[in-house]
């Protein structure tokens, strides 16, 4: 039973109500930029592609296998069973590996605080726990941001593409991307044209490091035995060379 | 009377050129330290959300750990392979490594947003994280280095019992040291495995951990040659020429291995075309490979070059610079085009890095002065002041006599 968002950019009119609701709910400082930052967990951007005026949201994609959760040395990120990827600020050391690694460039840092934390959307996890829906989905006047169970959202997305073939580019962004995400995006144009990553982007990222990390116990045990064996053999040979087979040989050598 | 002369000379000679430089760097570094810890990383550094890791990770951590690799390689050569002729360089190598790791930890404390939580990985585990593993290995290996180095201190303090104990466990310690080093030297490369679409293809490779490990071994030996050469000049110690020449041969061998692997990597990824694109990354890559690997490797493979101290030293510097360039290319150059943002460290970042290096140099010379780092046999005839200084003191004595 995991939840997610269906973002239908064809319904979005760019009213930015979701941005305002998000800022208010998370009590973020005022900021006029339209880039994700510690002050903006979501932004509405606009781009004209092939005569289509497209408004689209950017926010945490809440990956099924989150890269941030994989790279964090202290496990500050957690993929909850409800769907959201949440952040435990009390664990974070501020190493910023999540910011480096996130394939969607979502986590942002509080650069101007003496004791900074990482900031990102948590799908209003506290509201979900209370049985409410996230602030952005609640306020959205057109239904462009729809919150619900991921299975149902996928069904809705497929149905919309089937029923309005002219209106939609037939691709649900988030089904495969980075191993699948809890946020699904529909658009009238290819999402690559809006700047969303698509090429070589179907696999989940944590496996890139895990295939090396999983060898560590092998390296340690094999290496330990190998090195000690090497030491043992070499030193034994040196000792054998140094100890004379019988006294006469040494005496002979000394005479020469 | 004699003591007052030396006091005067101490004050005068206390302000040599390098000491002045040291105190200027220290002053700037301390100011940057204040800004960084009281006003945040944003105020002190040029780091941004687009470019979250800069000089402190790229140089202080990636290069610092690599340049300190001599500690585990030389220890392995002497204790495990039992090649005894290298015994005289074990102590300086371990000292360098120990100081290097202390500097790395200092840099990490600067770079972490909340440095007081640096202990968190000890109790909050995430075995999937490369950073988690690096943290543990750096912690454990620094402990190993401290224990290895403690022999020198215990010898000086004449604590025979404890010294005996450490000497008895030195083989397991060295083996642990090699294991921890193998793990985190390579893992510094694994850190970047997770950014296949961000790191420029000239540097991104599934072989990053192996390439990082091998280049660290090469530069570890190179650093031992570098510091042996420098300390032999600074402390008037007779240089053991055949020893450095032998070390240089090891460097040639490992660089060759590195180069072969690098070519294999390009072949496997079919990335040859990237070598000839007209863009900044290509030039940085060629500078790194030609200047840091191919040219010094070729030079050092000639016996005549290895016998000539100065050219040996210069070639070794090329290897070291090439290594530094490689790490900075991975951490900075290779990440710039994705970030669509240039990055150049702020003067505060540079001053903190310089401060760490300067503190390392100062600690090294203090340790050499007060601890039996170089061979005990010839420590008696090491004059610690250079002839010039002695003349300076003589002049002072003359002046004082005239005044009197």
Would you kindly provide a written description of the structure presented here, covering whatever features stand out?
Chain A is of the alpha+beta class and 256 residues long. Helix content of chain A is 34%, strand content 15%. Chain A has a 3-stranded mixed beta sheet. The longest helix of chain A has 27 residues, at 216-242. The radius of gyration of chain A is 28 Å and the shape is elongated. Chain A starts with a strand and ends with a helix. The mean pLDDT of chain A is 91. Chain B has 404 residues and is mainly α. In chain B, 75% of the residues lie in helices and 0% in strands. Chain B is built from 17 helices and no strands. Chain B is globular. The N and C termini of chain B lie close together (12 Å). Classes of the chains: A alpha+beta (256), B mainly alpha (404). Chains A and B meet through helix 2, helix 3, strand 6, helix 7 and helix 8 of A and helix 2, helix 3, helix 5, helix 8 and helix 10 of B.
């Amino acid at each position: 039973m995991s939840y997610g968002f269906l973002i239908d950019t064809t319904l979005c009119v760019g009213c930015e109500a979701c941005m305002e609701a998000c800022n208010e709910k998370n009590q973020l400082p005022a900021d006029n930029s339209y880039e994700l930052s510690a002050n903006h967990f979501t932004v509405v951007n606009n781009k004209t592609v092939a005569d289509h005026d497209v408004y689209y949201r950017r926010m945490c994609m809440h990956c099924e296998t989150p890269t941030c959760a994989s790279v964090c040395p202290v496990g500050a990120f957690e993929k909850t069973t409800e769907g959201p990827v949440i952040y435990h600020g009390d664990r974070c050391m501020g190493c910023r590996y999540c910011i480096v690694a996130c394939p969607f460039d979502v986590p942002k840092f509080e650069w101007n605080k003496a004791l900074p934390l990482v900031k990102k959307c948590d799908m209003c996890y506290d509201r979900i726990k209370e049985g409410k829906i996230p602030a952005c989905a609640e306020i959205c006047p057109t239904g462009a941001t729809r919150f619900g169970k991921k299975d149902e959202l996928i069904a809705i997305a497929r149905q919309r593409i089937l029923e309005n073939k002219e209106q939609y580019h037939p691709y649900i962004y988030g089904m495969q991307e980075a191993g699948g995400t809890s946020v699904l995006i529909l658009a009238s144009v290819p999402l690559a044209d809006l700047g969303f990553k698509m090429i070589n982007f179907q696999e989940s990222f944590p496996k890139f490091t895990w295939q090396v990390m999983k060898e560590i116990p092998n390296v340690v045990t094999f290496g330990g035995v190998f090195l000690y064996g090497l030491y043992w053999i070499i030193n034994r040979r040196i000792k054998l060379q140094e100890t004379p087979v019988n006294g006469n040989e040494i005496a002979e050598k000394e005479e020469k | 009377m004699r003591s007052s002369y030396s006091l005067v000379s101490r004050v005068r000679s206390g302000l040599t050129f390098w000491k002045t430089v040291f105190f200027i760097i220290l002053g700037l570094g301390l100011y940057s330290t204040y800004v960084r810890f009281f006003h945040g990383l944003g105020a002190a550094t040029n780091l941004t959300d687009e470019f979250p890791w800069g000089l402190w990770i790229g140089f202080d951590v990636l290069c610092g750990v690599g340049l300190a690799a001599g500690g585990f390689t030389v220890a392995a050569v002497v204790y495990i392979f039992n090649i005894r002729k290298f015994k005289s360089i074990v102590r300086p190598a371990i000292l360098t490594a120990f100081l290097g790791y202390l500097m790395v930890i200092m840099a990490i404390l600067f770079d972490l947003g909340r440095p007081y939580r640096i202990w968190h990985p000890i109790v909050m585990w995430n075995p999937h994280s490369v950073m988690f593993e690096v943290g543990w290995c750096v912690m454990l290996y620094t402990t190993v280095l401290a224990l290895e180095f403690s022999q020198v201190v215990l010898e000086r303090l004449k604590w025979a019992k404890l010294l005996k104990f450490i000497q008895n466990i030195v083989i397991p310690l060295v083996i642990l040291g090699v294991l921890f080093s193998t793990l985190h030297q390579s893992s510094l490369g694994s850190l970047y495995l997770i950014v296949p679409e961000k790191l420029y293809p000239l540097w991104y490779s599934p072989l990053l951990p192996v390439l990082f490990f091998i280049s660290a071994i090469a530069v570890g030996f190179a650093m031992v040659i570098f510091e042996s050469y420098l300390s032999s000049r600074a402390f008037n110690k007779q240089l053991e020429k055949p020893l450095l020449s032998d070390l240089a041969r090891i460097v040639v061998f490992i660089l060759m291995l590195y180069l072969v692997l690098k070519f294999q990597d390009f072949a496997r990824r079919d990335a040859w075309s990237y070598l000839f694109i007209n863009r900044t990354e290509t030039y940085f890559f060629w500078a790194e490979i030609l200047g840091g690997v191919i040219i010094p490797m070729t030079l050092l493979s000639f016996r005549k070059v290895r016998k000539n101290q100065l050219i040996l030293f210069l070639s070794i510097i090329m290897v070291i610079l090439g290594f530094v360039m490689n790490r900075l290319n991975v951490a900075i150059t290779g990440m710039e085009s994705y970030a669509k943002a240039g990055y150049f460290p702020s003067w505060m970042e540079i001053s903190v890095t310089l401060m760490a290096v300067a503190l390392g140099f100062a600690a090294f010379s203090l340790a050499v002065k007060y601890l039996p780092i170089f061979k005990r046999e010839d420590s008696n005839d090491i004059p610690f002041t250079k002839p010039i200084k002695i003349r300076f003191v003589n002049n002072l004595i003359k002046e004082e006599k005239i005044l009197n």
